[in-house]
Amino acid sequence: MSLVIKRLFRMSALRQTLAQSLCFLVLLSIGGFALESFLTRELQAEIDRDLRHQFSELEARLAEGKFSDLMLKQEDLFLQVEEGYGLITSTGELSGPLVSTVFNQAGLRTIFYEELFNKAVIQDYETAIDIIENSDDEDLLLSYELPFDGEFGEQWRVLSGPVAGGELIVFLPAFSSFALELQTVILIAVALLSVPALAVGVFFGWRAQKRLDRIASGYARIADGDLSVRMAPKIIRDDLDLLASRIDEATVRLQGSLRQMSEFSANIAHDLRTPLTRLQLHLDSGAHPDQAFLDSAIGQANRIVKIFDAIQRIARLRTRERRAKFKQVDLGEVAEQAMEIYSAVAEDADRHLTCRVIDPAVIDGDPELLLQMTANLVENAIRHCDAADSISIRVEGPLLSISDNGPGIPPDQREKVLEPMYRLDRSRTSNGSGLGLAMVKAITDLHDADLQLSESENGKGLCVSIRFTK
To answer: What stretch of H or E contains 21?
Structure first.
């Protein structure tokens, strides 16, 4: 049992819900007692106003010489249903159901009934209460009329002071009985509300905890290698669903990265097999190979070094450390530099290279990487286009595009060619490494640019469009 309780209290959602429910009950209690205090003060102020009004009226009647009319017997409390007062004359004669000591202090105050009433009145009142509570005689019950609507409480509010011909004191029940009843009502209400509040809190906390447990279980399966797990519902309703959706998105990206890594490893193995095999053949050809063999071996080794160097550069670009070197770069100047570098190369390869710049944008970027990106695209176009094909470099605002009318890339292969070491079947026999477009992708990602591969405007060839943010 203790283990179950410990497990329940380890559930964060359940603990939070219980804490919120308890806070609600505490605030409800504080609000209830604050209301009780406010109402008590207001009712006390109303009693004080009634006492002052009653005192003023009696004082006026005494000033008119009606002193004898207001003289009461000491047992007359039960006759004073609407008002209570007592008098003491200048000669010391006491009128009313009070003890003489109550006249010793003037002003408003709250006192206990034993300090206010004489013993005979208290005894008669207690007898009347006993009869009312225990007797079944209706005639007897009707003979008793309790003063102040039966509000004979522990505490009484009194106002005393001098008047013409003596001392006057007026009294009413203090609202202590009402306050006590109100406190009882508040406590009962809090007790009654606490059960459903805690029950509802536990229910919703349990539901939230179940969802968290499901997410934790799915996350554990992902950590164990099951990347097919999906936890988000079809409809996102709250932050827990959003959390599950974010985990699903991360899982999909991780799955794609692992797939890309697997393909990347296979492509590396495939593309390095040929130069390594050739290198081995050259090294195994004899103890004294001729210069042609040495040059070929060195060439194959250089190719391997270049492949690994390109892989390292792509990895460094993905760390985004080069963003520290960003500065203002004119895209038009980048295009013109690429045109200047490759115009002769394109002419030697019998390709027609053009460059057009229209209102070029100035962006934040790395000029060396932007030039390398453009150079890679131009080199790819020169390598894969046929003789007499056209290649165009175009800059318009923040858009840089390189297009050609060569063989192009099938739509279902356009995303894959951006992955490292991926090569189309027709490119396997060329000297490329499959890293050129991957490098372009890494550079555009570093610049937060949008890279799109599509057909050229004439419906033939390839158009690579890169849109930068200004």
So the answer is: helix 12-63
The terminus-to-terminus CA distance of the chain in angstroms comes to: 64
Residue 47: what pLDDT?
86
Counts of helices then strands in the chain (DSSP H, E): 11, 12
Integer Cα distance of 193 and 89 in angstroms: 56
- The tens digit of pLDDT for each residue in 433-452 reads 567 788 888 889 888 999 99
Asked if 450 and 429 touch (Cβ cutoff 8 Å), the reply is no
Residues 278-301 pLDDT 10s: 666 666 655 555 666 666 666 666
Rounded Cα–Cα distance for residues 161 and 47 (Å): 17
- The pTM of this model reads 0.46
Q: How far is C-alpha 39 from the geometric centre of its chain's CA atoms? A: 39
Mention every residue, 6+ apart, whose C-beta is less than 8 A from residue 41: none
Question: CB neighbours (10 Å) of residue 290?
Answer: 9
DSSP 103: G
Handedness of CA 71, 76, 77, 79 (dihedral sign): negative
CB-side neighbour CA atoms (13 Å) of 141: 7
Reduced to 3 states, what is the DSSP secondary structure of residue 33? helix
Radius of gyration over alpha carbons of the chain, in Å? 49
* Cα–Cα separations (whole angstroms), residue 373 to 68, 225, 268, 370, 409: 117, 36, 22, 5, 18
Question: In residues, how long is the chain?
Answer: 470
Count Cα neighbours of 402 within 13 Å in the Cβ-side half-sphere. 27
Instruction: Identify which of 381, 385, 392 has the alpha carbon closest to the alpha carbon of residue 357.
Output: 392
Specify the residue for token string 């640019």: 449
Asked whether the beta carbons of 393 and 353 are under 8 A apart, the reply is yes
Phi, psi of 119 (to 5 degrees): -65, -35
Q: 368 to each of 222, 326, 344, how far by Cα in Å? A: 40, 10, 21
> 154-168, 323-337, 356-370: which has the minimum mean pLDDT?
154-168
CATH of domain 323-467: 3.30.565.10
CA distance 272 to 433: 9
Sheet holding 155-163, edge to edge: 94-95, 84-89, 166-173, 155-163, 107-112
CA 362 to CA 330: how far, in whole Å? 4
Residues 6+ apart with CB under 8 A from 155: 110, 111, 112, 113, 173, 174, 176
**What angle do helix axes 436-446 and 367-384 make, rounded to 10 degrees?**
150
